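Researcher: Please predict.
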Amino acid sequence: MPASEATRPVNLQTPRVVKCPTPQCPGWITLDSTRHQTEPCQYCRVGVDTLRFLLSRVGAEHKALPPAVHDEFNRLMLTMAGAWNRNVYMRPSRTALVELNAGARGVTVEYNPQLGAAGQDGAAPLVGTILHKLLHFEAHLGQRVPQLEVRSGAKEKGNMAPLLSYLLTVADHAWVSQRLQQLYPQLYTAQARWGLDLAQMLVGSESMFNRYLSERNLNKLVAVLHDVGDDADTFRAAVLQRLASLTGQVLGHEKDEAFRTFVGIQLANVRLLNPDSYGAYQKALETAGFENLGEAVSSAERLYSELSRSIEPSQPATQGGTERPSTQIDPAVFHRTLEGALKALGMSNYFEIK
Protein backbone atom coordinates (compact mmCIF):
# COMPACT_ATOMS: atom_id res chain seq x y z
CA MET A 1 0.00 0.00 0.00
CA PRO A 2 2.34 2.76 -1.19
CA ALA A 3 1.80 6.33 -0.06
CA SER A 4 1.44 9.26 -2.44
CA GLU A 5 -0.16 12.69 -2.62
CA ALA A 6 -3.81 12.91 -1.68
CA THR A 7 -6.78 14.47 -3.39
CA ARG A 8 -8.72 17.20 -1.63
CA PRO A 9 -11.64 16.00 0.55
CA VAL A 10 -15.01 17.37 -0.52
CA ASN A 11 -18.25 18.40 1.19
CA LEU A 12 -16.58 19.22 4.49
CA GLN A 13 -18.17 21.35 7.15
CA THR A 14 -17.81 25.10 7.09
CA PRO A 15 -15.39 26.63 9.62
CA ARG A 16 -16.76 27.05 13.13
CA VAL A 17 -15.49 28.38 16.42
CA VAL A 18 -15.08 25.99 19.35
CA LYS A 19 -14.08 26.54 22.96
CA CYS A 20 -10.39 26.06 23.65
CA PRO A 21 -10.05 22.62 25.31
CA THR A 22 -7.36 23.73 27.78
CA PRO A 23 -8.91 23.93 31.29
CA GLN A 24 -9.46 27.51 32.54
CA CYS A 25 -8.39 28.97 29.18
CA PRO A 26 -10.83 31.70 28.00
CA GLY A 27 -9.83 31.31 24.34
CA TRP A 28 -11.68 30.02 21.30
CA ILE A 29 -10.28 28.08 18.32
CA THR A 30 -11.43 28.21 14.70
CA LEU A 31 -11.87 24.64 13.50
CA ASP A 32 -11.76 24.36 9.71
CA SER A 33 -11.78 20.79 8.33
CA THR A 34 -10.33 21.96 5.02
CA ARG A 35 -7.15 23.26 6.69
CA HIS A 36 -4.11 21.20 7.61
CA GLN A 37 -3.91 22.73 11.09
CA THR A 38 -6.08 24.72 13.44
CA GLU A 39 -5.01 28.24 14.19
CA PRO A 40 -3.51 28.20 17.70
CA CYS A 41 -5.46 29.56 20.63
CA GLN A 42 -4.49 33.19 21.13
CA TYR A 43 -4.06 32.62 24.88
CA CYS A 44 -2.50 29.18 25.46
CA ARG A 45 -1.27 28.68 21.85
CA VAL A 46 -2.63 25.13 21.69
CA GLY A 47 -3.47 23.81 18.23
CA VAL A 48 -3.66 20.49 16.38
CA ASP A 49 -3.11 18.88 13.00
CA THR A 50 -6.48 18.01 11.42
CA LEU A 51 -7.68 14.95 9.54
CA ARG A 52 -7.19 16.97 6.37
CA PHE A 53 -3.47 17.02 7.17
CA LEU A 54 -3.37 13.21 7.43
CA LEU A 55 -5.35 12.61 4.24
CA SER A 56 -3.05 14.91 2.26
CA ARG A 57 -0.10 12.64 3.07
CA VAL A 58 -1.40 9.13 2.50
CA GLY A 59 -2.84 7.17 -0.38
CA ALA A 60 -3.88 8.27 -3.82
CA GLU A 61 -7.60 7.52 -4.09
CA HIS A 62 -10.73 6.39 -2.21
CA LYS A 63 -10.03 8.85 0.56
CA ALA A 64 -13.25 10.82 0.91
CA LEU A 65 -14.58 10.46 4.45
CA PRO A 66 -17.86 11.83 5.84
CA PRO A 67 -17.77 15.27 7.48
CA ALA A 68 -18.78 13.63 10.78
CA VAL A 69 -15.53 11.63 10.75
CA HIS A 70 -13.50 14.82 10.27
CA ASP A 71 -15.45 16.40 13.10
CA GLU A 72 -14.89 13.57 15.56
CA PHE A 73 -11.22 13.14 14.62
CA ASN A 74 -10.50 16.85 15.08
CA ARG A 75 -12.54 16.98 18.30
CA LEU A 76 -10.58 14.11 19.83
CA MET A 77 -7.28 15.70 18.77
CA LEU A 78 -8.32 18.96 20.43
CA THR A 79 -9.39 17.07 23.56
CA MET A 80 -5.94 15.52 23.83
CA ALA A 81 -4.29 18.90 23.25
CA GLY A 82 -6.34 20.42 26.07
CA ALA A 83 -5.59 17.55 28.44
CA TRP A 84 -1.83 17.87 27.88
CA ASN A 85 -1.87 21.65 27.32
CA ARG A 86 0.37 21.01 24.31
CA ASN A 87 0.09 20.98 20.55
CA VAL A 88 -0.77 17.66 18.89
CA TYR A 89 0.94 16.70 15.65
CA MET A 90 0.77 13.80 13.21
CA ARG A 91 3.95 12.26 11.86
CA PRO A 92 4.55 9.32 9.48
CA SER A 93 6.70 6.59 10.97
CA ARG A 94 8.24 3.33 9.80
CA THR A 95 8.72 2.15 13.38
CA ALA A 96 5.03 2.09 14.41
CA LEU A 97 1.60 1.11 13.16
CA VAL A 98 -0.22 3.78 15.17
CA GLU A 99 1.05 5.21 18.47
CA LEU A 100 0.62 8.28 20.69
CA ASN A 101 3.89 9.73 22.01
CA ALA A 102 4.30 12.70 24.35
CA GLY A 103 7.43 14.83 24.11
CA ALA A 104 8.79 18.20 25.14
CA ARG A 105 7.33 19.93 22.08
CA GLY A 106 3.92 18.30 22.22
CA VAL A 107 2.05 15.06 21.58
CA THR A 108 2.66 13.18 18.34
CA VAL A 109 0.33 10.72 16.64
CA GLU A 110 2.71 8.43 14.76
CA TYR A 111 1.22 6.40 11.91
CA ASN A 112 2.54 4.07 9.22
CA PRO A 113 1.82 5.75 5.86
CA GLN A 114 1.49 2.39 4.11
CA LEU A 115 -1.80 1.90 5.95
CA GLY A 116 -3.33 4.87 4.15
CA ALA A 117 -3.89 3.26 0.75
CA ALA A 118 -5.94 0.16 1.55
CA GLY A 119 -7.47 -0.41 -1.88
CA GLN A 120 -11.19 0.37 -2.01
CA ASP A 121 -11.08 1.12 1.73
CA GLY A 122 -8.65 3.99 1.13
CA ALA A 123 -7.55 5.63 4.36
CA ALA A 124 -10.51 4.33 6.40
CA PRO A 125 -8.59 1.49 8.18
CA LEU A 126 -5.83 3.90 9.21
CA VAL A 127 -8.27 6.57 10.41
CA GLY A 128 -10.25 3.94 12.33
CA THR A 129 -7.08 2.73 14.06
CA ILE A 130 -6.09 6.28 15.05
CA LEU A 131 -9.61 6.92 16.38
CA HIS A 132 -9.27 3.70 18.38
CA LYS A 133 -6.19 5.13 20.11
CA LEU A 134 -7.80 8.53 20.69
CA LEU A 135 -10.93 6.95 22.16
CA HIS A 136 -8.76 4.92 24.54
CA PHE A 137 -7.19 8.18 25.70
CA GLU A 138 -10.52 9.91 26.22
CA ALA A 139 -12.20 6.96 27.95
CA HIS A 140 -10.63 7.77 31.33
CA LEU A 141 -9.78 11.43 30.84
CA GLY A 142 -9.35 13.11 34.21
CA GLN A 143 -10.01 9.87 36.08
CA ARG A 144 -7.82 7.74 38.27
CA VAL A 145 -7.19 4.48 36.44
CA PRO A 146 -7.76 1.42 38.68
CA GLN A 147 -4.74 -0.71 39.60
CA LEU A 148 -4.40 -4.48 39.92
CA GLU A 149 -2.86 -5.74 43.16
CA VAL A 150 -1.98 -9.17 44.50
CA ARG A 151 -3.97 -10.10 47.60
CA SER A 152 -2.19 -10.82 50.85
CA GLY A 153 -1.27 -14.49 51.01
CA ALA A 154 -1.29 -14.95 47.21
CA LYS A 155 2.25 -13.85 46.44
CA GLU A 156 2.89 -17.06 44.49
CA LYS A 157 0.48 -15.73 41.83
CA GLY A 158 2.43 -12.48 41.43
CA ASN A 159 4.02 -13.64 38.17
CA MET A 160 0.59 -13.43 36.53
CA ALA A 161 0.08 -9.76 37.43
CA PRO A 162 1.47 -8.36 34.12
CA LEU A 163 -0.89 -10.57 32.14
CA LEU A 164 -3.95 -9.72 34.23
CA SER A 165 -3.11 -6.01 34.02
CA TYR A 166 -3.93 -6.36 30.32
CA LEU A 167 -7.57 -6.66 31.41
CA LEU A 168 -7.65 -2.85 31.71
CA THR A 169 -7.04 -2.62 27.97
CA VAL A 170 -9.47 -5.42 27.12
CA ALA A 171 -12.23 -3.86 29.24
CA ASP A 172 -11.77 -0.60 27.33
CA HIS A 173 -12.28 -2.48 24.06
CA ALA A 174 -15.83 -3.42 25.02
CA TRP A 175 -16.59 0.31 24.94
CA VAL A 176 -14.21 1.54 22.21
CA SER A 177 -15.33 -1.05 19.65
CA GLN A 178 -19.01 -0.45 20.43
CA ARG A 179 -18.64 3.30 19.99
CA LEU A 180 -16.64 3.04 16.78
CA GLN A 181 -19.11 0.58 15.28
CA GLN A 182 -22.12 2.63 16.39
CA LEU A 183 -20.95 6.01 15.13
CA TYR A 184 -18.65 5.15 12.22
CA PRO A 185 -19.48 1.70 10.82
CA GLN A 186 -17.47 2.46 7.66
CA LEU A 187 -14.29 2.86 9.69
CA TYR A 188 -15.06 -0.06 12.00
CA THR A 189 -15.70 -2.41 9.07
CA ALA A 190 -12.60 -1.30 7.17
CA GLN A 191 -10.36 -1.66 10.22
CA ALA A 192 -11.80 -5.12 10.95
CA ARG A 193 -11.48 -6.24 7.34
CA TRP A 194 -7.75 -5.56 7.41
CA GLY A 195 -7.29 -6.88 10.95
CA LEU A 196 -5.59 -3.71 12.13
CA ASP A 197 -7.52 -3.92 15.40
CA LEU A 198 -5.94 -7.33 16.00
CA ALA A 199 -2.52 -6.18 14.81
CA GLN A 200 -2.39 -3.92 17.85
CA MET A 201 -2.22 -7.07 20.00
CA LEU A 202 1.17 -7.65 18.38
CA VAL A 203 2.61 -4.16 18.13
CA GLY A 204 2.90 -1.07 20.31
CA SER A 205 1.29 -0.05 23.58
CA GLU A 206 -1.50 -2.66 23.33
CA SER A 207 0.81 -5.55 22.51
CA MET A 208 0.54 -8.72 24.61
CA PHE A 209 4.25 -9.32 24.08
CA ASN A 210 7.45 -7.61 25.21
CA ARG A 211 9.07 -4.69 23.40
CA TYR A 212 11.60 -6.80 21.54
CA LEU A 213 8.92 -9.09 20.12
CA SER A 214 6.73 -6.08 19.38
CA GLU A 215 9.45 -4.59 17.17
CA ARG A 216 9.95 -7.89 15.36
CA ASN A 217 6.20 -8.21 14.83
CA LEU A 218 6.07 -4.73 13.35
CA ASN A 219 8.80 -5.54 10.85
CA LYS A 220 7.04 -8.73 9.78
CA LEU A 221 3.63 -7.07 9.44
CA VAL A 222 5.02 -4.15 7.44
CA ALA A 223 6.74 -6.62 5.11
CA VAL A 224 3.46 -8.49 4.61
CA LEU A 225 1.65 -5.19 4.11
CA HIS A 226 4.08 -4.28 1.35
CA ASP A 227 3.67 -7.65 -0.37
CA VAL A 228 -0.12 -8.07 -0.29
CA GLY A 229 -0.99 -4.67 -1.77
CA ASP A 230 -4.75 -4.23 -1.41
CA ASP A 231 -5.53 -7.85 -0.41
CA ALA A 232 -7.16 -7.37 3.00
CA ASP A 233 -7.96 -11.05 3.58
CA THR A 234 -4.33 -12.11 3.15
CA PHE A 235 -3.07 -9.44 5.52
CA ARG A 236 -5.67 -10.26 8.20
CA ALA A 237 -4.82 -13.97 7.90
CA ALA A 238 -1.13 -13.11 8.37
CA VAL A 239 -1.97 -11.15 11.53
CA LEU A 240 -3.89 -14.11 12.98
CA GLN A 241 -1.17 -16.57 12.04
CA ARG A 242 1.55 -14.43 13.62
CA LEU A 243 -0.50 -13.96 16.78
CA ALA A 244 -1.12 -17.71 17.11
CA SER A 245 2.47 -18.65 16.29
CA LEU A 246 3.96 -16.24 18.81
CA THR A 247 1.47 -17.35 21.45
CA GLY A 248 2.67 -20.91 20.90
CA GLN A 249 6.29 -19.87 21.42
CA VAL A 250 5.54 -17.89 24.57
CA LEU A 251 3.32 -20.56 26.18
CA GLY A 252 5.35 -23.59 25.16
CA HIS A 253 6.44 -24.38 28.72
CA GLU A 254 3.74 -22.66 30.77
CA LYS A 255 1.46 -24.42 33.23
CA ASP A 256 -2.19 -25.10 32.44
CA GLU A 257 -3.41 -22.14 34.52
CA ALA A 258 -1.19 -19.62 32.75
CA PHE A 259 -2.13 -21.08 29.37
CA ARG A 260 -5.86 -20.96 30.11
CA THR A 261 -5.67 -17.38 31.37
CA PHE A 262 -3.45 -16.04 28.58
CA VAL A 263 -5.42 -17.61 25.74
CA GLY A 264 -8.74 -16.85 27.44
CA ILE A 265 -7.90 -13.14 27.58
CA GLN A 266 -6.66 -13.25 23.99
CA LEU A 267 -9.81 -14.90 22.64
CA ALA A 268 -12.11 -12.54 24.53
CA ASN A 269 -10.14 -9.58 23.19
CA VAL A 270 -10.32 -10.88 19.62
CA ARG A 271 -14.07 -11.33 19.93
CA LEU A 272 -14.54 -7.81 21.29
CA LEU A 273 -12.37 -6.20 18.62
CA ASN A 274 -13.19 -8.31 15.58
CA PRO A 275 -16.04 -10.83 16.09
CA ASP A 276 -15.74 -12.16 12.54
CA SER A 277 -12.18 -13.34 13.29
CA TYR A 278 -13.04 -15.15 16.53
CA GLY A 279 -13.53 -18.57 14.94
CA ALA A 280 -10.61 -18.06 12.56
CA TYR A 281 -8.27 -17.33 15.45
CA GLN A 282 -9.30 -20.50 17.27
CA LYS A 283 -8.43 -22.45 14.12
CA ALA A 284 -5.11 -20.61 13.89
CA LEU A 285 -4.32 -21.65 17.47
CA GLU A 286 -5.14 -25.27 16.67
CA THR A 287 -2.88 -25.09 13.62
CA ALA A 288 -0.12 -23.70 15.86
CA GLY A 289 -0.28 -26.86 17.99
CA PHE A 290 -2.91 -26.09 20.65
CA GLU A 291 -5.12 -29.14 20.42
CA ASN A 292 -7.09 -28.77 23.65
CA LEU A 293 -8.59 -25.28 23.83
CA GLY A 294 -11.71 -26.26 25.76
CA GLU A 295 -10.88 -24.63 29.11
CA ALA A 296 -9.37 -21.54 27.49
CA VAL A 297 -12.46 -21.07 25.30
CA SER A 298 -14.72 -21.46 28.34
CA SER A 299 -12.71 -18.77 30.17
CA ALA A 300 -12.94 -16.54 27.09
CA GLU A 301 -16.70 -17.00 26.88
CA ARG A 302 -17.18 -16.06 30.53
CA LEU A 303 -14.87 -13.06 30.21
CA TYR A 304 -16.51 -11.85 27.01
CA SER A 305 -19.97 -12.18 28.54
CA GLU A 306 -18.90 -10.23 31.64
CA LEU A 307 -17.28 -7.41 29.68
CA SER A 308 -20.11 -7.10 27.17
CA ARG A 309 -22.76 -7.05 29.88
CA SER A 310 -21.01 -4.79 32.36
CA ILE A 311 -20.14 -1.85 30.11
CA GLU A 312 -23.35 0.16 30.16
CA PRO A 313 -24.59 1.77 26.94
CA SER A 314 -23.43 5.36 26.58
CA GLN A 315 -25.99 7.97 27.51
CA PRO A 316 -26.60 10.70 24.91
CA ALA A 317 -24.93 14.03 25.59
CA THR A 318 -25.86 17.22 23.76
CA GLN A 319 -23.14 18.97 21.78
CA GLY A 320 -23.77 21.63 19.17
CA GLY A 321 -27.50 20.95 19.17
CA THR A 322 -27.08 17.24 18.41
CA GLU A 323 -26.97 14.16 20.59
CA ARG A 324 -24.01 11.80 20.66
CA PRO A 325 -22.95 9.07 23.10
CA SER A 326 -20.99 10.02 26.18
CA THR A 327 -17.25 9.96 25.60
CA GLN A 328 -16.14 8.53 28.93
CA ILE A 329 -16.57 5.31 30.88
CA ASP A 330 -18.14 5.71 34.31
CA PRO A 331 -15.36 4.94 36.85
CA ALA A 332 -17.63 2.92 39.14
CA VAL A 333 -18.90 0.81 36.22
CA PHE A 334 -15.36 0.24 35.00
CA HIS A 335 -14.25 -0.84 38.48
CA ARG A 336 -17.10 -3.35 38.73
CA THR A 337 -16.30 -4.60 35.24
CA LEU A 338 -12.70 -5.37 36.18
CA GLU A 339 -13.81 -7.16 39.34
CA GLY A 340 -16.22 -9.23 37.26
CA ALA A 341 -13.43 -10.00 34.77
CA LEU A 342 -11.23 -11.38 37.55
CA LYS A 343 -14.09 -13.60 38.73
CA ALA A 344 -14.69 -14.82 35.18
CA LEU A 345 -11.04 -15.92 35.00
CA GLY A 346 -11.13 -17.50 38.46
CA MET A 347 -8.57 -15.02 39.80
CA SER A 348 -10.63 -12.97 42.26
CA ASN A 349 -9.20 -14.89 45.25
CA TYR A 350 -5.67 -13.88 44.28
CA PHE A 351 -6.01 -10.35 42.88
CA GLU A 352 -8.08 -7.26 43.62
CA ILE A 353 -8.81 -3.97 41.90
CA LYS A 354 -8.01 -0.76 43.76
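Model: The first strand starts at residue 16 and ends at 19.
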